[in-house]
Design a protein that fits this description.
With 334 residues, the protein is α/β, with parallel strands linked by helices. The protein contains nine helices and nine strands.
Length: 334
């Protein structure tokens, strides 16, 4: 089988095109709740001038919450994508942190600020969020969709505080993009054209649904996320601790990312470092799209269905997610 057909296999392009590791993790967990909230204030101060609906937010239940779940939204989206999901998890007794990724959630959805995104910004935000989460609760879990799945992967690999992770369609390779080309672009980002890519070139800016998701993006804005995933994929950065549970969520109707690459990535990076590693496969007959979370997305499930999928992935919910996952995952964990 050619190397590009089996992304988990050591390949010439990874051997020949070595990568410098992104900025090293700078773990500095908050000592207690007061310190964590002070750091949260610093993080949310970055939202000045950003619309209310797209700002970083913390959702807390009325009673004690020993687990804090950090959820990263998808590429070109915003925390609002996961607010309804986060509220359901909060109501179930979990604390939920929804960070706004750098250069996302701006009022001008046609901005080009993602051109300025760097790997260092992504690593710094992961560390900040895990530092905050650790100061708020006894245990930290992470969830991410698309580029958010890459952030959750980085957190799971580099921060020992993270115990469970759900990686939904992590951004390892765009659909139709050969893996050697991914590696080449990450190695030599100057060759990446600065062109603006519309999610739907037929309608361009008139997607007609979400008021906060960008309808397109400058191509260089993808590269920092791919740098993180490639550094994990090839072992430049390794998982430094054992996790309780890691679950990949895949969707057969996803037309945005390469599912074979995401599967090989998750297996290569986490299967040997988690007490339970599995794949939650969404029933293809549902016809959901890449963004199956955002209530504004025309190809999304209901909030109840999304929460059921994520809960099954975390090991706290029914293994079939109400029939959405085929086949079901293993039974719940304590």
């Amino acid at each position: 089988m050619p190397a590009d057909r089996n992304p988990a296999r050591p390949a010439w392009y990874r051997r020949r095109l070595s990568l410098a590791a992104p900025s090293a993790s700078a773990a500095d967990p908050a000592a207690d709740r007061a310190a964590a909230l002070a750091r949260l204030d610093v993080l949310t101060a970055r939202d000045e001038g950003v619309p209310e609906m797209t700002r970083t937010r913390l959702l807390e239940p009325d009673g004690p919450a020993p687990v804090t779940i950090v959820i990263w939204h998808g590429f070109t989206n915003a925390p609002a994508q996961f607010v309804a999901v986060g509220e359901r998890l909060r109501d179930a007794g979990y604390r939920v942190l929804l960070p706004r990724m750098p250069h996302h959630g701006l009022a001008d959805v046609l901005n080009r600020e993602l051109t300025e995104l760097t790997e260092a910004e992504l690593v710094e935000q992961v560390d900040t969020c895990i530092d905050i989460a650790d100061g708020l609760g006894d245990e930290v879990w992470v969830i991410g969709l698309s580029a958010g799945g890459t952030m959750a992967s980085w957190a799971s690999a580099t921060r020992s505080e993270v115990r469970r992770a759900v990686l939904a369609a992590p951004l390892v390779a765009p659909k139709g993009f050969p893996m050697p080309a991914v590696r080449l672009c990450v190695k030599f980002p100057r060759i990446v054209p600065g062109m603006y890519m519309w999610w739907d070139p037929r309608v361009k800016a008139d997607l007609g649904h979400s008021p906060y998701a960008y309808p397109g993006f400058p191509l260089p804005g993808v590269m920092p996320f791919l740098h993180l995933s490639e550094s994990l994929f090839d072992g430049t950065v390794t998982v430094g601790h054992r996790l309780d549970r890691v679950v990949l969520v895949s969707n057969p109707n996803d037309l945005a990312v390469r599912q074979d690459a995401a599967r090989a990535f998750a297996t290569t990076v986490f299967a040997g470092s988690a007490d339970y590693f599995g794949e939650a496969r969404i029933d293809g007959q549902l016809g959901w799209m890449h963004d199956f979370v955002d209530p504004w997305s025309p190809g999304a499930g209901s909030t109840e269905q999304v929460v059921a999928i994520l809960s099954a992935g975390l090991g706290i919910g029914e293994p079939t997610a109400g029939g959405v996952l085929v086949p079901p995952l293993v039974t719940e964990q304590a």
